[in-house]
Amino acid sequence: MTVFGDHFGHPGISCLFGSIEVDPRSTSDRKLVCMSPLAPKSGKSVFVRVQIPRTFISANDIAFMYYPNERVLGFSPSSGLSDSSTLVTVVGEHFVQHSLACVFSEERAASAVLLSSTAVLCQTPTSVPVAGHVGVASNGQDFAYSAGSFKSIAALSLSSSYPQGGSTAGGDVVTIIGYNLRPQVACLFDMDEVTPTFVSSTMTLCRSPRHEAGVAELAVRSFESGQLAKGLTYRFSPAWTVLPPPPSPY
User: Fold this and answer.
1) pTM above 0.70?
2) 157-237 has the same fold as 71-153
3) How far apart are alpha carbons 188 and 186 in whole angstroms?
4) Fold for domain 71-153?
5) Chain centroid to CA 218: how far?
6) 3-state SS class at 85
7) I want to staple 32 with a disulfide (CB 3.0 to 4.6 A). Which of 3, 57, 80, 149 is the partner?
8) pLDDT tens profile 161-173
9) What is the pLDDT of residues 126-159, one digit of tens each?
């Protein structure tokens, strides 16, 4: 607990949590940091005062509340895009409003909203590291952390594809060029989903499905982040049919 005030530089100064005296962890003229003792059996709150031995006890009592220890049991989704915020629902036990805060690894969340004593809605900052445990603290500083890690994923982007068209019968190999491509993606020709062959972070190969004639939207969906990268098209044309020559009239 941090107590702010004036003239805290006296030797022997301490914090009183009710009747329990605690030596400070650090002091300055205007700030006193003390570790709270175990919760009293009589209740959930005590008054905190500052004491200077044989000289002075502060007259301004500060109410200090004790809460059950939070537990983080899980969260969803488990990943999001690194260049935008993601709303993550954290489930657990003993969440209270007070000075509620969330962290992803060591990065404080953009916001934390109490849904119930067992659920908190946390908004990720855009600077979340690639992997980090999710923490919740009702008092804003003593965090309980998840066992699993939240992953921040770079956004997909598409730049080109070739060939840009093929037969309505399908079966043509289409090369897609882009950035941050991963094995855990799918190609979509309009609503038709195709499992691609991953080549590199800048190239993946998709085999066109059977499709009616016309221009289809070509997109790539990430299973990890749910992102749908668009911007390409593919033209389906009727397949050529080779007919036998007509019989000779002679």
Assistant:
1) no
2) yes
3) 7
4) Immunoglobulin-like (2.60.40)
5) 28
6) coil
7) 3
8) 999 999 999 999 9
9) 766 667 899 999 888 889 999 999 988 888 999 9
